[in-house]
Specification:
With 508 residues, this protein is of the alpha/beta class. The protein contains 15 helices and 23 strands. Helix content is 30%, strand content 19%.
């Protein structure tokens, strides 16, 4: 097996499969200095200002002369004089292909009365504002299987009672984008298929008034949705007591569910990558993309997101858009982000993170090209704004920040009932009420953090598995997880603290 990886004949760089020492000869090139695993080596001399290609796509421009065999990274590669703003051919719909013949995989799901199918069966405790977070957590803590196992002992079909609290809900424009996003997110969670029922706890005087929120989402109190606030109830202790009483009344009905065979068309995966490295775009991301193509062929849905982390690679998605309107909506979100970062004194190349750079990624262009691989090769059916309900089947896009908890929160609000999360540096992410699967990009991470990782895509780098084989394994793991098999993060109890709605606009 080679000590390096060439991704495309036209590439200007090779990728180190393992650490390379100076003097090593690869492709008749003598390596200059130490090259860490996952990092790039120049295949030829590159002059200052010239583009550098990986995946046969531009990942940046030489900031100084680069010699053949030299390490290519932040010291000699950047976004160029125009900060990555170079001509891209959006070619709307040019790569659209015939829809695949529908297949009929099944999983053991939980059918809801409205026809939707759940992968988990929780009761949720949501908050309208941060001021009611302590009360909400006290309610859910009463039902903790770790500290008070008797509370749910009689209800084995209830996966748990979880409090999903947040840091906002007041001090914001009551009609602005931030409030719209918060209310849309709360609506998506309150009605999420993986919640049998939910409580919403408020303070009473907050900007995000519960009645106004209910109206915005066309919601009303019911047997499955109860709302109240601390001020009207008579304080914290009485609020906690009331919340426990309401959940106790819900539990017998929530427990009266059973799993039965359901079409994989009812699975919606939220696609995430965090702590990416130089291997992410070679192993875990394309393997997840292969699993996405399988899911789409079975009628399911996959949501790609993290707009700042597809920046510079959006043209690969517009080429797959089923209509020009879909492609142009994606481009409009890119333009919105360019403006948003500018007015906040930032730039789109705020990524990669320090961990990404340590793992071999140099620019956001390089990171993005690897990130879009999670979306496979299926046609792009629709583009959604943050936390909007996803109604299309197949491969879709949702505009979210790159910050993983915020991004996944939007996807779950949109209907994702499983999360698949690739990582090269390590992650311990969970996402109640939707199970989160962690896909390791390299075997070193798998060995180091196996109790947090669900599958080792590093086998692709090691040469012991193909992308197609790993994609099939991921797809089968998704079906098993959707059927009730707990993910590693669920076994550790992750998921309540990772609810992070996107905060947009001034805090007032």
């Amino acid at each position: 097996m080679n000590t390096y990886i060439r991704l495309h004949p036209a590439d200007d760089v090779l990728i180190a499969r393992a650490q390379l020492l100076g003097g090593t000869v690869i492709e008749n090139i003598t390596v200059k200095g130490l090259i860490p695993p996952g990092h790039k080596i120049a295949t030829h001399a590159i002059a200052t200002g010239e583009p550098v290609r990986r995946y046969n796509q531009i990942i940046g421009f030489a900031s100084k002369p680069i010699a053949a065999g030299e390490h290519v990274h932040t010291h000699n590669l950047d976004m160029g004089a125009n900060k990555g703003d170079f001509e891209r051919d959006y070619a709307f719909g040019a790569d659209v292909k015939p829809e695949p013949a529908k297949l009929e995989a099944t999983f053991m799901g939980i059918k809801r009365p409205d026809g939707r199918v759940a992968t988990r069966n929780y009761i949720g405790v949501l908050t309208s504002v941060n001021c009611s977070a302590t009360a909400a957590r006290a309610i859910s803590d009463h039902f903790s299987r770790r500290t008070n196992p008797s509370a749910l002992a009689a209800y084995p079909n209830v996966d748990g009672v979880v409090a999903l609290t947040h840091g906002t809900g007041c001090g914001m424009d009551g009609e602005g984008l931030g409030m719209q996003i918060l209310q849309r997110t709360l609506t998506g969670y309150a009605t999420h298929v993986n919640f049998w029922g939910a409580l919403v706890v408020g303070l009473g005087c907050e900007g995000n008034q519960i009645k106004a929120w209910l109206g915005s989402g066309n919601l009303a109190e019911s047997d499955n949705l109860k709302v109240f606030n601390i001020q009207d109830t008579g304080g914290t202790a009485k609020t906690v007591e009331k919340g426990i009483e309401l959940i106790n009344a819900m539990l017998p009905r929530a427990n009266a569910v059973k799993r039965e065979p359901c079409s994989a068309a009812h699975i919606t995966i939220g696609l995430q990558c965090g702590g990416s490295d130089g291997y992410s775009g070679i192993s875990a991301n394309p393997a997840l993309g292969a699993a996405v193509d399988l899911l789409v062929a079975h009628g399911g849905t996959a949501i790609l997101s993290e707009t700042p982390e597809i920046y510079g690679a959006e043209h690969l998605l517009t080429r797959r858009s089923v209509s020009r309107a879909v492609g142009e909506k994606l481009v409009s979100r890119i333009k919105w982000w360019e403006h948003y970062t500018e007015i906040n004194d930032g730039e789109m190349n705020n990524n990669p993170s320090p961990g990404n750079k340590a793992g071999g990624l140099t620019t956001i262009l390089e990171k993005s090209l690897g990130a879009v691989a999670k979306g496979g090769t299926s046609n792009l059916q629709a583009v959604y704004e943050y936390a909007e309900p996803v109604t299309s089947h197949g491969f879709v896009y949702m505009d979210t920040p790159g910050y993983d908890p915020v991004s996944a929160t939007g996807q779950v609000a949109g209907g994702a009932n499983v999360i698949c999360f690739t990582t090269g540096r390590g992650s311990a992410y969970g996402c109640a009420p939707s199970p989160s699967l962690k896909l390791a990009t390299n075997s070193a991470l798998w060995k180091r953090q196996e109790d947090d990782m669900d599958i080792n895509c590093g086998e692709i780098i090691d040469g012991t598995a193909s992308i197609a084989e790993m994609g099939q394994r991921i797809f089968e793991m998704v079906l098993a997880t959707a059927s009730g098999e707990p993910s590693k993060s669920e076994r550790h109890g992750y998921g309540q603290n990772e609810f992070v709605p996107w905060q947009v606009g001034a805090v007032m």
